[in-house]
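for the writeup, i need someone to sanity check this before i put it in the appendix. the sequnce is what the collaborator sent (i think, or maybe the updated version? ugh). structure was predicted straight from it, no edits. if anything looks off just tell me and ill rerun, i have time this weekend
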Amino acid sequence: QDLFAVLSGNLLLSKKSADDAVISGNLMINRAQLKENLFSQQLQKKLLSAASSMRGHKEIPMMCDITIETKDPIRVDTNLLEANAQVGLHIKGPLQHPIIEGSVHVPSGRIRFPYQPLHISKGEITLLQGQPLNPQIELVAKNTIKNHLITLHVTGSLEDTTVLLESTPPLSNEQIVGLLIAGAHEHSLDAIIPALLMQNVTNYIFSSHRSNFYDRYIKPWMKQINVNLKPNFSDQSGRGGLRGTLEIVVNDRWRALIEKNFSLTEDTHFELEYILSDDITFRIIRDERRDVGGEVEMKWKF
């Protein structure tokens, strides 16, 4: 139920009088869709279980020499991962205990996080002889979020994985996680949790059945806009209290920010931001004193 595939190829069963029977050939995955995380150990167990179900009779020794490749990339679509995968596997040895070697290459895809995804620039799963449930993994995923280049590095084996998060300009691991979860690296996770709950409630409300007019005209437009609520309870230079921020993200380039301190009588803070490129950002600001100004942010690399 997690894998749909269309296969083609050839298999040959041969046996010489003094040798064991041998199944050999090539299989081509013409197209396939997988609804399981490629990097999970659960998938490795399912594949090994599927191979075990094809074992021959215990009293009839049988060898195998089978190559499996993909014609078109396998489409992987789960709640966490969306990717294309190319497979090159070699199954050999006794059919009762086959040896699986090869690799799974992930040329493109994205890892879904609540606020913004990370786009996969490099992904490789290498199956080693004698370790079917503990493949080697190398994964690099990046994205620019709030003017920060976030990079995720995953290396090592499935049972001993090293995960490294990096940011340019620098952020702590806690700030990077806050940025991926709720787009708020300035605040602690304690302040972000209520915002996450609010987003889940919003998703539940908008998932109900609606009229054809809504589905046809309004819903496609609403999907382009993300609204995030960020409460802030920290004390900022003696001007603390309950501060709420409403962020409206239209697309990757346009973003609006509305900030209000409910404990003070000051006016509301507005920001409108346009990201021209990774290095140039235009920003219009109306602060709490009702002063209107503009900013141009430019980055140079030396």
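The CA atoms of residues 207 and 301 lie 45 Å apart. Residues 197-214 have pLDDT under 50 and may be disordered.
thx in advance!!
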